[in-house]
UniProtKB/TrEMBL annotation, chain A:
Membrane topology designation: Multi-pass membrane protein
Highest taxon of source: Bacteria
The protein's name: Glycosyltransferase family 39 protein
Protein location: Cell membrane
GO terms (BP aspect): lipopolysaccharide biosynthetic process; response to iron(III) ion
GO molecular function, one term: pentosyltransferase activity
From TrEMBL, chain B:
Lineage: Bacteria, Bacillati, Actinomycetota, Actinomycetes, Kitasatosporales
GO molecular function: glycosyltransferase activity
Keywords: Glycosyltransferase, Membrane, Transferase, Transmembrane, Transmembrane helix
Similarity comment text for this entry: Belongs to the glycosyltransferase 2 family.
Organism domain of life: Bacteria
TM segment ranges: 306-325, 332-352, 372-392
Name assigned to this protein: Glycosyltransferase
InterPro entries, per the entry: Nucleotide-diphossugar_trans
A Pfam short name: Glyco_tranf_2_3
Gene3D superfamilies given in the database record: Spore Coat Polysaccharide Biosynthesis Protein SpsA, Chain A
């Protein structure tokens, strides 16, 4: 429409490069095929993750801790059921407290680990949908985005870990939201600002998300227009920083930013996390990290190994591959997290892999889409025969992959759907809650791990000083004060595998174990759970 | 407890005010498409409209000749320039006559004989003499781009608008700490915020580089001679009647201006505007706007100077209260919300300054960014002072003009010599 007639005006004015033309923006919310694919997969994921969620995997000590902290928040007792000591930023369990508020108000007893795993179902559902949305926003075809979502939600490894009440799951949800907003198809300033906010919430939910932020920035950079980029990126970084700084500000307002006598501090908390004893090099077969790796690969090899390979390929191919560039953000996130895990002397927690799963799934789906696209591409010079050959190759590859993966996943997911790993815990708690065995729980002291701490509280034991999280008996001065005679002031020990393992470094717990005898035992072998009564403490 | 509640309520109110202002300030940069739409379209074909350009000049003998000469360089075919001088201002009249003699078919001098003089009266004096289909207003110190009229012509024809507001930009950001902030205010206002107003159908127009169809202007009865912000008033009256206003900003095309030479004259200028906004608010023309949202926007925009004064003082006070008094940590966090929003605004201002430099090919140095940040609170104080002063003057019924003097700091040496 712009034509300059000869002699009409002077030389046209120099202006910036062609302004961004209005682009069609696909609306997933209004696309029926997308809704069908995403909705169908979501139903499958909810079914597989939700079925038997209370029975498998075994209740974890960490799960109990986070939930107990959420419980303390709900009861207005502060940020934790013991003194909050800045071990993690509290936003993760603050959200947990918010989500579980209404069910807990109706029935206080459901506020224990097994039933409250249902809250994680909500988190998994949101995360899975966000993986799909992100895949689509990064340009994956519908089937590939669906593949990514399925990998993320149905891998046996994901099913096991996403069922558990881990802060990492919550952080993953927020970081996925941040990626989705960073890849906003409208390239909207406030979407990018929102990405910064979501990233900050992710980091404050689980601090390890910090290392993913460069990959997020990369995604945002690619999805902003040259003319508005500096505003969008600055907005996002500012939003992230300001919200992130709320945490140190909170510590400062509580006079707990700097270490000092008689109180906990944020800097002490960070110092503890940074100096946690390493679990060795992950590729060294004798190391603790390697055992963690093996436990992941036990559940699934496809997503961790093939996904990582795909991420590496995508990062390496970013220069000349369109898919590589489009998925550079998630692929870079996976690679960064893998490199962090490869530190020779770092501490590798079992839930670490949770943060990588969505990025691995997207990278794998991206490579699959790229490969299928290359094989199916019908160039002008390609004949019918070549097209058929291309389609056959894709079909053969797809069937091979399915044959290799589906049976293993079927086995893995079936055991997740049928195994009851928590019968012993339930029986042990029932034993301790039975008035025929313990006449007055409110005057009885039990050392137990956090997985059942809330159950004991619901059974009538006094929170903190009656039901005692076993670490605190040794490590929290406020609890030690209530046990002036050490192990002799304890009545029972609920000896779970965690308690027996960590007693080695906890003198009081070790003594309590040594000076007690089992009165009831549930399960067998390493996994058995014993209720042990303290003996030799006469004169109480 | 009561302290906590009060602090929270005040903090949340401040937060929403700051957030809305920020949201509107960043309007143009929302999406690349929005930004592209704020520019002038490239004109096509011959100019079809004729323009009457009004240049009211009062004690502007130093810059008037240059301004009119530059207007005459316009590439557009059909325009006339009407220089309006006062009967009691022989120096400016002399310069005007001299310029008119160089292009007698283009330039006419209109003499304003009002006893008490102000800009709207001068403009109204010239309005009956306008022969063009479109009336444009420029100030005597404006540097107008030769291509501007062609672009405005195209904008009128392409959009069917009744009013086209072109960009105005203060350029001399290096002159002083407050000129830096003043320039940036203009940048955000004309580059971004005004476009939002045009989109929403409520717009306080700028004082110059504003073009109105002559018929529409005469129908509206010209400018309000008693209003201190006659430009804002005109915009409010026209948009309240549903007239279509288009805003276009192109760094190439903006009219370049200078900031007031002293802090005191900036204060006076701002006082006049604020008082003018207050008058426009009290004239209640904006009540005819059809939707509630538009009326809310009008109410808020016209009261902005006073909100600004209020927030500038209350935000630090509120944070101080939270720190000094022993309020719960949650409440303290809430009190930081407005301050946080202010920080975000600060960050966007820094980026805005960078963009300003890029757009105008000006070198913005680190010291300028520092001045921007450090000058922020003091500028806020100045704005607050102007707002208080405006209310005080309006209460005392003092409605006379405090004119701003111009020294030509935005003109480079070659400009003045040529």
């Amino acid at each position: 429409m712009t034509t300059v007639l000869p002699g009409a005006t002077a030389a046209p004015v120099a202006r910036p490069a062609a302004p961004a033309a209005a682009r069609p923006v696909a609306r997933l919310r209004r696309s029926r095929p997308d809704l069908l694919v995403c909705g169908g997969l979501l139903a499958a994921i909810l079914l597989v993750q939700g079925w038997n969620i209370t029975g498998f995997p075994a209740l974890g000590d960490d799960e109990g801790t986070y939930l107990a902290q959420a419980w303390a928040v709900q009861r207005g007792e502060g940020l934790a059921h013991y003194t909050y000591w800045y071990d993690h930023p509290p936003l993760g369990w603050l959200q947990l407290a918010l989500v579980t508020w209404i069910p807990a108000a109706f029935s206080p007893d459901v506020m224990s680990v097994a039933p409250m795993r249902c809250a994680m179902l909500l988190v998994s559902a949101v995360s899975a949908v966000l993986v799909y949305v992100l895949g689509r926003r990064l340009g994956l075809p519908r089937w590939a985005a669906g593949l990514g979502m399925a990998l993320f939600g149905l891998s046996p490894l994901a099913v096991v870990l996403q069922r558990e009440i881990f802060l990492d799951n919550i952080a993953v949800m927020w970081v996925l939201l941040a990626f989705c907003l960073a890849a906003s198809p409208r390239r909207h300033l406030w979407h990018h600002f929102g990405a910064g906010l979501a990233a900050a919430v992710a980091v404050l939910s689980k601090e390890t998300m910090l290392v993913v932020l460069p990959a997020l920035l990369l995604t945002m950079w690619r999805h902003t227009h040259r003319d508005t980029r500096k505003f969008a990126v600055t907005g996002a970084v500012t939003a992230c920083l300001l919200v992130g700084l709320a945490y140190p500000l909170f510590a400062l307002l509580n006079h707990e930013l700097f270490p000092g006598p008689g109180h906990v501090s944020l800097l002490d908390g960070i110092g503890y996390q940074m100096s946690r004893p390493g679990s060795g090099f992950v590729l060294d077969p004798g190391s603790g990290s390697h055992a963690v790796l093996r436990s992941w690969l036990y559940y699934d090899r496809v997503l961790p190994l093939c996904g990582l390979a795909a991420a590496v390929v995508l990062v390496a191919a970013a220069r000349w591959s369109r898919t590589g560039r489009a998925l550079a953000g998630p692929a870079a996130a996976a690679v960064i997290l893998a490199l962090v895990a490869l530190r020779p002397s770092g501490y590798l927690p079992a839930m670490y892999v949770i943060q990588v799963l969505p990025f691995l799934a997207l990278a794998l789906a991206g490579v699959a889409a790229s490969a299928a696209g290359a094989l199916l591409r019908t160039g002008a010079g390609r004949g019918r025969r070549q097209r058929v050959a291309g389609r056959s190759t894709v079909a053969v590859l797809a069937v091979t992959a399915a044959v290799l993966v589906v049976p293993r996943w079927y086995d893995g997911d079936r055991s997740a759907l049928t195994t009851d790993a928590n019968a012993s815990y339930r029986s042990a708690v029932a034993w301790l809650g039975d008035r025929e065995h313990v006449a007055d729980p409110s005057r009885t002291r039990v050392l137990a791990d956090d997985a059942v701490w809330l159950d004991l509280v619901h059974a009538g034991y006094r929170p903190g000083t009656g039901a005692i999280w076993f670490y605190k008996a040794d490590l929290d001065p406020a609890v030690a004060e209530t046990l002036p005679r050490g192990w002799r002031d304890v009545d029972y020990v609920l000896a779970s595998p965690t308690v027996r393992r960590d007693a080695a470094t906890l003198p009081l717990v070790r003594a309590a174990l040594a000076n007690s005898e089992p009165v009831a035992a549930f399960g067998e072998g390493e996994d058995r759970i014993e209720v042990r009564r303290i003996t030799g403490a006469e004169g109480r | 407890m009561l302290t906590s509640v009060i602090v929270c309520v005040v903090a949340l109110a401040l937060f929403w005010m700051a957030a809305f202002t920020l949201w509107w300030q960043m309007h143009a940069w929302r999406t690349p498409e929005t930004l592209a739409a704020t520019r002038f379209e490239q004109p096509s074909g011959e100019g079809a409209l004729s323009f009457s350009l009004l240049v009211p000049a009062r004690h502007e003998q130093a810059v008037l000749e240059h301004t009119v000469t530059r207007l005459l360089e316009s590439t557009h075919g059909g325009f006339e320039v009407l220089v309006i001088v006062g009967h009691d201002d022989p120096e400016t009249a002399e310069v005007a006559a001299k310029v008119a003699a160089t292009a007698p078919d283009r330039v006419r001098v209109i003499v304003d004989t009002h006893e008490k003089k102000n800009k709207p009266k001068a403009l109204n004096t010239a309005l009956p003499h306008c022969r063009g289909e479109v009336v444009g207003v420029f100030d005597a110190e404006d540097q107008v781009h030769p291509e501007l009229l062609s672009h405005v012509d195209h904008a009128f024809r392409a959009t069917g608008a009744d009013v086209v507001q072109g960009g105005v930009q203060l350029i001399n950001f290096h002159s002083s700490w407050y000129s830096l902030r003043n320039c940036l205010e203009y940048f955000f206002w004309f580059r971004s915020r005004l476009h939002l107003h045009a989109e929403k159908g409520f717009i306080p127009l700028g004082g110059n580089t504003v073009f109105v169809r002559t018929g529409v202007l005469r129908e509206a009865g010209g400018w309000d001679p008693e209003c201190l912000a006659e430009d804002c008033d005109l915009g409010v009256r026209l948009s309240s009647k549903g007239k279509r206003v288009v805003v276009a900003y192109d760094s190439e095309m903006v009219t370049r201006e200078e900031t007031p030479g002293t802090l005191m004259s900036l204060l006076k200028q701002r006082t006049r505007w604020n008082q003018g906004f207050l008058q426009v608010y009290r004239k209640r023309d904006w009540r005819q706007l059809p939707t509630v949202a538009q009326r809310m926007l009008a109410r808020y925009t016209l009261m902005t100077p006073f909100f600004q004064a209020f927030t500038g003082i209350i935000i630090p006070l509120n944070v101080a209260v939270a720190l000094v008094l022993d309020v719960p940590a949650g409440v303290a966090v809430v009190t930081f919300l407005p301050a946080v929003t202010m920080l975000v605004t600060f960050m966007f201002e820094i980026v805005g300054l960078h963009d300003f430099g890029t757009q105008y090919g000006l070198r913005v140095r680190l010291v300028h960014y520092l001045k921007l940040v450090l000058g922020g609170p003091f500028y806020q104080l100045l704005l607050a002072g102007a707002a208080v002063r405006a209310v005080w003057r309006e209460q005392r019924g003092r409605g006379d003009w405090e004119l701003t003097r111009h020294v030509g700091a935005h003109l480079t040496r070659e400009d003045v010599a040529s």
